[in-house]
Each structure stands twice: as structure tokens, then as C-alpha cells.
Amino acid sequence: MAMTVDIGDLVNVETGKISRRIFADEGIYQQELERIFARCWLYVGHETQLKENGDYITTYMGEDPVIVIRDRNGVIQVLHNSCTHRGMKICRSDEGNARSFSCSYHGWTFSSSGDLVGVPREDVAYSNGIDKSMLGLRRAAHIGILHGMIFATWDPQAPSLDEYLGGMKVYLDLMANRMVGGIEIIGGVHKWIINSNWKLAADNFVGDMYHVPVTHGSSLGIGIRKPWGDDGYQISPGNGHGFGGEFGGLAEGEKAATPYTAFVKEVRKNLEKERGEFVTKIVPIGHGTVFPNFSFLDTMRFRTFRVWQPRGPNAMEIQAWCVVDKALPEELKAAVRAQYIFTFGPSGVFEQEDGENWSQCTSSARGTVGRDGHFDYSMGLGRDRTVKEALGVDLPGRIGGMWSEINQRAMYQRWADLMGAESWRDLA
After folding, report:
1. What is the DSSP letter of 330?
2. Residues 143/76, Cβ–Cβ less than 8 Å
3. Where does the pLDDT of residue 1 fall: very low under 50, low under 70, confident under 90, or very high at 90 and above?
């Protein structure tokens, strides 16, 4: 275990000052792997990626590679993708279907549920005996599923997924369960690496509308949105999660509207009848992050999930998917996917702009002088209210204005609490 770093005053949400060190320090990064990524609930995939028994995808929990598979009995398993003999990855494909996995180093074979079922020359090489029941792949301690979204944690003492999500669960329901049949992933996964600390991307999606008119100002010139107003919100439902957007959805430009835009407005009308007038304000629910590193965009043109996989203090692997309602007609699914690729795919116009920002912010924090300072997150400090006070409906969390950093402050406070706690019990 790495030496524990004293977090001390690196995060001060009372003033909105966040030390630059947390984006550059190797010791802090190693502590994140232990106290955040080996402890928290992490998004690992969606059930629609595992339609048949034996279907699998490979991904990461922190820097630990995992296989997410629907085993031969139809049970979803999350397995450490590392042979228990010498540590070789036993699966090196992004996705597929398999009844078992055989290590290409020495040939040990594991079932779809992670049991060690085959050892070459077992009778000769291990004539003194080998207990295969003790050498299966490590499994995630807990797996939880919400509207098809699969989460897992390595920590046996972690709270339940419901408790971990807290108030965010209500809002995820409005994003992922607003049509019969729920959502699905289409088109596979995009993966790419940029030179940025993972927290900057999570921070951007959890509550940063402030950058949009500047960073993405070109969207006005090409007609994919209208000028920005000030009528929006950021909602912090607790536990470091958060989301926000413009009331009523993104202000589309004349060249942005697709048949999907009209479809979402119709869905919103139906939701209003079922759940109340407040949904017209916050559906689609815009940008958001489920702490620590699962983010989404839910707009009038498209939806995307993304995970910011840590690769050291100065790099991350971005994984991104296009998300649609299962009930959408095929032509609308195609329209949604085209908009996702145009804007937030790896070559998307907005994605390129964001990546440049995050990389430069990371680079500037690496030097001796760069680390000796703070980022400022004081926007909207002391001006938030309960959601009930602001919207007149009994929903969890506190709400700030469109130009507020309430969600970033909550995210970094949760980060500091976890980094300073020896266990979930200490955190509570």
C-alpha cells in the first residue's frame, strides 16, 4: 500500500479553493486508486451490451482490467481480467461471446463465472495437488443494476448502490426510464487517451456550464444552438454526484433540430402528465456525473455515457457510448447517433475543444510553481437553495443557478472525505 498523503487543507469548500496538487501529485493519485476506485461503486457497462449468455465486454475499474460477462446461467459477473497464475490478461478483446477464457501464457482456463476449470498437465506438473477452488478469478464484491446500468465495487463493506446514489437515483430515473423499455447502447464503444487528469473531466460534466459560451462559442456561428441566456440550474443531490442544464433543455439552433428533438418534447409532455410540471424544466436533464467518473449528456439531440478511466495523474482513457431509448424508431436512432458523433464522439467538434482545455489545465499544474496554488470554485457560493424551495416539488438536493459551482464543490468535498477515510465506516 502506498504511503498515505495528508489531504489536509487541499480542499476548502467554504472558500471554493481547491489545491492544484490534487491534479498532479503521484502520491495523491495512488491514494485515489486505493480509496476511491477500489472502494466506490463504478459504472462498468449496460445490460444491452450483454444480451445472450456468454456475451462479455472488457473495461476497467480504476486501473484494474475487468471482464463484465453474462455467464452460462444468465448471471452478470464482474471478474478481474488477470490470470491467478502469473497475472496475464485472459481476455484481450473489447467484446465477444465465450463459454470460457484460456490464458495465452500457460493455458489455465476459467469458466464464464470465473472458476478455474482447466490446468494443463495438472496430473504431472501438480502431482502434489492443486486446489482449483481457491484459484478462480477475483470477483467484484458487489454488483448493482439500475435501469440496465451495471455498477460494481471491489469493497465488501461498501454501502448498497441505492444508498451510494442517494438522491441522484431520482434524477437518473428521469434520464434512463422515461420511455417503456428503457435505454440501450448502440454502435459500440469509442476509446481514446488524452493527457488530462480524470477529475477535470468529471468536474466539467458535473456542473460546468460556465465554459460553454466561451469554449464552444463556435456552435453559434455554425447554427447548432441559440445564444446563451442565464435561465438554468445546477443540482447537487448529495454524495458528490450532480447534474445541471438549461431549463427546458438545450436552446437549439436552426441547424440543430432533428426529428428526435420533436420526439423528446412529446415524451416530456407525457412525463408531465405522470409526474408533474417540474419535468418540463429539467427533462432532458443535461450534463451530469455520478461520482467518481461516470458522466452523461442528455440533450434534445442525443445522449451519451462516458467513463473517465484514470491512467496516472496526467492521463486518462475516455470511454464513450451513444445511448438511445429502445422504443425509438430506427431512423431516429440513426439521427441520434449522427449527432453524437458530430459533437461528442472522439472527433466531435465539442469533444476536441474540451480535451484541449483539460490537457492544458493538467499541464499547467505539473510544475513547481503550478502546484503551489489553487483553482477557484467560488462561483455561486452561499446562494443555493433546496430543490423544493426553488421548484416547488419535493425532490432531493440543493440547487444553484446556471452559473454556479455548487456541484464541483460537493464533488471535491466527497473526494476529500473518501481520501481521508480509512474505511466506509470512518466516512459515515
Report:
1. H
2. yes
3. very low
Instruction: Tell me the C-alpha distance between 22 and 11, whole Å.
Output: 9
- Give backbone dihedrals phi and psi of 324, rounded to 5 degrees, phi first: -140, 160
Digit-coded pLDDT (tens) for 343-382 = 898 888 889 899 999 999 999 999 999 899 999 999 999 9
> Which residues is 219 bridged to in the sheet?
none
| 283 and 141 together in one domain | no
Q: How many CB atoms lie within 10 A of CB 22?
A: 24
pTM (2 decimals)? 0.96
Same domain, 20 and 61: no
Rounded CA separation 311/290 (Å): 19
Question: What DSSP element (H or E) covers 371?
Answer: helix 368-371
pLDDT digits (tens, 9 = 90+) for 45-103: 999 999 999 999 999 999 999 999 999 999 999 999 999 999 999 999 999 999 999 99
pLDDT digits (tens, 9 = 90+) for 291-347: 999 999 999 889 999 999 999 999 999 999 999 999 999 999 999 999 899 889 888
Identify whether residues 136 and 280 lie together within a single domain: no
- Beta-carbon neighbour count of residue 347 at 10 Å? 11
C-alpha separations of 90 from 101, 105, 419 in Å: 6, 9, 32
Name the grid cell of 175: 434520464
pLDDT value of residue 217: 87
Q: Which domain holds residue 112?
A: 42-145
Q: Count other C-beta atoms under 10 Å from residue 131's C-beta.
A: 8
Q: How many CB atoms lie within 10 A of CB 262?
A: 12
Q: Which CATH number does the domain housing residue 115 bear? A: 2.102.10.10
Is residue 54 exposed (0-12), middle (13-18) or buried (19+ Cβ within 10 Å)?
Answer: middle
Instruction: Give the CA radius of gyration of the chain.
Output: 22
Considering the domain boundaries, does residue 154 fall inside one? no
Q: Which helix (H) or strand (E) holds 100?
A: strand 100-102
- 70 and 179: one domain? no
- CA 213 to chain CA mean position, Å: 24
Separation between Cα atoms, residue 43 and residue 377, nearest integer Å: 27
252's grid cell: 437549439
**How much of the chain is in helix, strand and coil states, percent to nearest 5?**
30, 25, 40
Looking at the structure of the chain, the number of domains it has is 2
In this predicted structure, the answer to whether residue 408 has a pLDDT above a threshold of 50 is: yes
3-class DSSP state of 232:
strand
3-class DSSP state of 65: strand
Q: Which of 241, 157, 202, 198 is nearest to 63 (CA)?
A: 198
Q: Which three cell numbers stand for residue 169?
A: 437515483
